[in-house]
Amino acid sequence: MTAKRQTRNVRWIATLAAGALATAATDPAMAQGDRHVIVITLDGLRWQELFDGADRDLITGADGGVSDSTATLRRFWRTDRDDRRRALMPFLWSAVDRQGLILGDSAAGSVVRVTNGRRFSYPGYNELFVGAPDDRRIDSNRKLPNPNVTVLEWLGRRPGFGGRVEVFGSWDVFPSIFNAERSGLPVNGDGPPFPRAASDTERALNRMSEWLPALWAAARLDAPTMAAAAEALVQRQPRVLTVLLGETDEWAHARRYDQYLDAAHRADRFIEYLWTTAQTLPSYRGRTTLLISTDHGRGNGRAWTDHGEEVPSADRIWMAVLGPEVSPTESLGRQPATQSQFAATIARVVGEDWQTARPDAAGPLRLRPD
Ligand SMILES: [Zn+2]
């Protein structure tokens, strides 16, 4: 018996002792196994910024393409490393302090590697959500309907998850990556965030999305993606809510380090909003895990904008798991990890075992001491 199960039994006994059996039996959220997960990715956000905070040379030198370095230094530069990374992603670091495992900080002896040899987006999302690389078939960002079943597709067919897995993204390739046609998952990637708007709020968000500037051909701004995911969280309370943000990558390719930092910072505020909102909802409170990662790393110095097969350092990424499933220790923080462990970890935190469906997938991260 695991320690977790023991704790749960103790809780049950306490509940019975309090004479609250009727409440527990009628509250579906009390049912064992009704755990939730919120999965968030920040496309191409480097481990360098996550752990070290903003890079002074990129803010002040020509390689960063920053339009107002004084203002950017004021917002994101601090002399102390810990202060600096907290200036960039304050919520993430406070959540790690409370109950979280964060991997990929080389200064702390932690490395997370991409195992696909491509080091760009589709192969990265495929590895994250399938749990194994597929360099032979997934070799471009073409809208190829994914031949692999993702852990989200599989979860959507598990008992207790039907209609309770939702995906919101800012890139028009996501419906192919999650093979929306085969999986039946609601996957959003471009156009209005609610293709079948059913309420005034959803219609309003669709209008807002239409009125925002279209800066990139294949990706929309993250704001409508965030707003739609936040609305879905409250209205439908999915058990698996996945939000795939894209601006960090778009601004990096555009060599706009100031906008890249701002996109990461806004993502952090969004994650905080989702998390604090979830804690106000009985179905999520105390039973929700937050998983955060990225599809690929990037280069160093002037090449901070780049990634791909010819940028070897882009195989280094990061991963965070926050919430009640995690019991962090120093040695868990140094476990060697790969991008491919993400899929099984998603399943694990909601009580499922992805390797039963996909035996060649990597196993989940270790979240608590054995
Ligand atoms: Zn990219």
Description of the molecule:
The chain is of the alpha/beta class. The chain has one domain (37-357): Alkaline Phosphatase, subunit A, CATH 3.40.720.10. The protein has 17 helices and ten strands. It has helices at residues 3-17, 21-26, 47-52, 56-60, 69-76, 81-88, 90-99, 121-130, 151-156, 174-177, 180-183, 200-211, 222-236, 247-253, 257-279, 341-349, 354-357; strands spanning 36-42, 100-103, 112-113, 165-169, 187-188, 240-245, 288-293, 316-317, 319-322, 337-338. It has a seven-stranded mixed beta sheet with strand order 2-9-7-1-6-4-5, with helices on both faces. Strands 8-3-10 form a three-stranded mixed beta sheet, with no helix packed on it. Helix 8 (121-130) packs across helix 16 (341-349) and helix 12 packs antiparallel against helix 13 (222-236). Bound molecules: zinc ion.
Which descriptors apply to this entry?
alpha/beta, 370 residues, Alkaline Phosphatase, subunit A, 41% helix, three-stranded mixed sheet, single chain, binds zinc ion
Q: Shape, please?
A: globular
Helix content: 40-55%
Q: What's the end-to-end separation, in Å?
A: 11 Å
CATH class: Alpha Beta
- Structural class of the secondary structure composition? alpha/beta
The CATH superfamily is Alkaline Phosphatase, subunit A
Largest sheet: 7 strands, mixed
Strand segment count? 10
CATH topology: Alkaline Phosphatase, subunit A
Number of helices: 17
Q: Strands across the major sheet, in which order?
A: 2-9-7-1-6-4-5
Mean pLDDT: 92
Uncertain runs with pLDDT below 50, 5 residues or more?
A: 1-31
Small-molecule components bound: zinc ion
Write down the Rg.
Answer: 20 Å
**Proper CATH architecture:** 3-Layer(aba) Sandwich
Order of helices and strands: HHEHHHHHEEHHEHHEHHEHHEEEEHH
Q: Work out the strand percent.
A: 5-15%
Q: How many distinct domains?
A: 1
